[in-house]
């Protein structure tokens, strides 16, 4: 069976990475979390006090950033992101990074840097990548594009549960404001804004269990593979 490219875009915390990991496991494909790349770059910028409003400073800083995904058995059997050789998977998920990542991800030089690497990762196909612009900009010719969404209150609840498990001082209001702000910046930025690709299938999983969303998506994978081989 020929391998395909599957893209999953959508709003924050609606279950994109959950579905992408499910599909990668089921199909024995590579899963790439493109958001982790923007988060790792943001983490580096914060740590090294890089001013992302200054294009020259951004360009120089990007020359010192090396990102890699490597298998990590502590990360649900999926690859984790390494920043200059250090596994930063668990350092990039907190609010400090979440508060700044959408600003950093709107910077032209940052997007060019990340998109070029993402396109290289898909050269051999057999990949599931989730993010905001994967079906529109990174892989406009992907065989299967999914655009995920879910009610805001449900998305806030899902992300709050995750963050609260690690940090009991976090409030639901804080999580809601961050989600809404990121969705707004991501949808309204000039370069590669979050948009549904014309040929993407919408998946609203507000009322779906993880098993139900997987079964739906697997049917779409089967359809996309039939189209490809016909
Ligand atoms: O998991 P969550 O939906 O909270 O976000 P993420 O996928 O980790 O992405 C973090 C941020 O990176 C997003 O809010 C976007 O600002 C940015 N991003 C992007 O601009 N383009 C992508 N392909 C992926 C993420
Ligand atoms: O990648 P994205 O930010 O879109 O979301 P995620 O990290 O995959 O999912 C956010 C949370 O929603 C996780 O804790 C998932 O377990 C949960 N989830 C859920 O409860 N039901 C679904 N159908 C999908 C995800």
List keywords for this structure.
230 residues, alpha/beta, Rossmann fold, five-stranded parallel beta sheet, three-stranded antiparallel beta sheet, 10 helices, 8 strands, binds cytidine-5'-diphosphate, ATP binding, kinase, nucleotide-binding, ATP-binding
The CATH topology is given as Rossmann fold
How many domains is the backbone divided into?
1
Number of strands: 8
- Nearest-angstrom radius of gyration? 17 Å
Apparent shape: globular
What is the helical fraction, as a range of percent? 40-55%
State the CATH class.
Alpha Beta
The strand order across the widest sheet is 2-6-1-7-8
- Helices and strands, in N-to-C order? EHEHHEEEHHHEHEHHEH
- Cα(first) to Cα(last) distance is 12 Å
Count up the helices.
10
CATH H-level superfamily title: P-loop containing nucleotide triphosphate hydrolases
Bound molecules: cytidine-5'-diphosphate
GO biological process, one term: nucleobase-containing small molecule interconversion
InterPro entries: Cytidylate_kin, Cytidylate_kinase_dom, P-loop_NTPase
Catalytic activity: dCMP + ATP = dCDP + ADP; CMP + ATP = CDP + ADP
Subcellular location: Cytoplasm
Task: Give a structural overview.
InterPro entries: Cytidylate_kin, Cytidylate_kinase_dom, P-loop_NTPase. GO terms for molecular function: ATP binding; CMP kinase activity; dCMP kinase activity. Belongs to the cytidylate kinase family. Type 1 subfamily. ATP binds at residues 10-18. It is found in: Cytoplasm. The model has no long low-confidence stretch (mean pLDDT 96). The protein has helices at 16-27, 34-47, 55-63, 95-98, 101-105, 108-121, 134-138, 152-166, 172-188, 210-229, and strands spanning 5-10, 30-33, 67-71, 79-83, 86-87, 127-131, 144-149, 201-204. The chain has ten helices and eight strands. The chain is an alpha/beta fold and 230 residues long. Helix 2 packs across helix 6 (108-121). The strands form two sheets. It has a five-stranded parallel beta sheet. A three-stranded antiparallel beta sheet has the order 3-4-5, covered by helices on one side. Helices cover 50% and strands 16% of the residues. The chain has one domain: Rossmann fold. One cytidine-5'-diphosphate is lined by residues 12-18, 130, 158-159, 162, 205, 208-210, 213.
């Amino acid at each position: 069976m020929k391998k395909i490219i599957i893209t999953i875009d959508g709003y924050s915390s609606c279950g994109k990475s959950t579905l992408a990991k499910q599909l990668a496991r089921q199909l024995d494909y590579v899963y790439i979390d493109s958001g982790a790349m923007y988060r790792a770059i943001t983490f580096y910028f914060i740590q090294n006090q890089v001013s992302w409003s200054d294009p020259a400073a951004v360009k120089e800083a990007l020359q010192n950033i090396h990102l890699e995904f490597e298998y990590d058995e502590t990360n649900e059997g999926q690859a984790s992101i390494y920043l200059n050789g250090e596994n930063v998977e668990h350092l990039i998920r907190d609010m400090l990074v979440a508060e700044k990542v959408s600003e950093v991800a709107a910077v032209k030089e940052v997007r060019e840097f990340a998109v070029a690497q993402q396109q290289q990762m898909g050269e051999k196909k057999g990949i599931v990548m989730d993010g905001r612009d994967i079906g529109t900009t990174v892989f406009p010719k992907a065989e299967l594009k999914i655009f995920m969404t879910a009610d805001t209150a449900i998305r806030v609840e899902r992300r709050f549960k995750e963050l609260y498990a690690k940090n009991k001082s976090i409030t639901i209001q804080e999580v809601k404001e961050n989600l809404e702000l990121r969705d707004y910046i991501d949808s309204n930025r000039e370069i590669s804004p979050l948009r549904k690709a014309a040929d993407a299938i919408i998946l609203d999983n507000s009322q779906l269990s993880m098993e139900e969303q997987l079964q739906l998506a697997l049917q779409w994978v089967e359809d996309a593979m039939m189209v490809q081989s016909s």
